[in-house]
Amino acid sequence: MKVLEHVSFNVEDEESEDIIAGVGKIMVGLMRININDGVPSQNPLRCKRFVQGRQAQQQTPHQEKEAKKESFRKYLESSGAVDALTKVLVALYEQNDKPSSALEFIQQKLSCPSIPEYEKLQAQFSDLQIRYNDLLTTHRNTCKELEEMKSSHVLGMASTKETTDNESPAKDDS
Hints:
It is found in: Nucleus. The protein has six helices and two strands, in the order βαβααααα. The protein has helices spanning 14-31, 48-56, 61-79, 81-94, 102-109, 115-167; strands at 2-3, 34-35. α4 (81-94) packs across α5. Mean pLDDT is 75; it is low at 1-9 and 32-42.
């Protein structure tokens, strides 16, 4: 079996290139994507003929599992996830003073909130949702009261007009 070792990444010096190659090997190892010996030397996920040939074969459960892995790898590459993770892992490797938590470093570099920050944001969201619902209820009640006042004012104006029309003094011809 051969392990896919190619990860494309632009680098400016040989040391960074070695680091990136090592990170790429680690990532591939972590993803446990193995490719059979008969595979072309280029990336099989980008080799259309290879992928079509694999799909045309009657697949065993093992081959189906491998096809799913290859499909997932292609998805990660096309979405840019592999490049993003590579950059973060290279940044972690290049840190002189290694952070106490590699996971928090990765989350920070990927702009993910930490677990305490996430819980705090969830609590704030819940508080704001409750406040919004209270304000919405108050607004609806105020609108209802306003409509009631308008309708009572219109009715009051109509009854006042009838009263004044009936009570107006008749003009004498004297």
